[in-house]
Design brief:
The chain contains 4 helices and 6 strands; from the N terminus they run ααααββββββ. The chain is α+β, with helices and mostly antiparallel strands. It has 3 domains: about 50 residues; about 50 residues; about 55 residues, Nucleotide Exchange Factor Grpe, Chain A, domain 2, CATH 2.30.22. The chain is elongated.
Amino acid sequence: MKKQKHDENVPEQEEIMNDVENQPTENNNENTESSERTAEQIVDDLEVMTQKCSELNDKNLRLMAEFDNYRKRTLKERSELIKTAGENILVNMLPLVDDFERALKAMETSEDINAVKDGVDLIYNKFIAFLTQNGVKEIPTENEAFDTDLHEAITTFPAPDEAMKGKIIDCVSKGYTLNEKVIRFAKVVVGE
């Protein structure tokens, strides 16, 4: 079908071509010049567009490479941070280790048990202060209501009175939070 239409259009196209050829020569020259100018402009526009495309492609490649370098750098920094995150805390704990070593030496030679107890109490208080400075807090348990978000019941025990039902009777192991997040649940005995 298309071929028939094409064949039908051929005489029309020939007529148009004959009309163009029969026009005066000056007009024909102007058409040629304008078609040449437009062809030159098209070639120039094509070159400009090709240059812009290559510039954009280059910018895109550089941006992708820059982002990839950024991603690798941040991954490296994060892994180094994870490796050394506890370094500051451990460095600050070293004086406590020194205190314990001095206390152990003093226990070997000291005959005054009260002095040794006082020294251990000082080290304990220093350690608790260190934990508090670093955001570690003890979870309160004495006469507190049992809370599954803070406490872990290891057993239940008959309550001595009605007021102690559902409350903590005894703490087997203290619990701690770090900046309001539970890092160890308090192991408790609950009254029933």
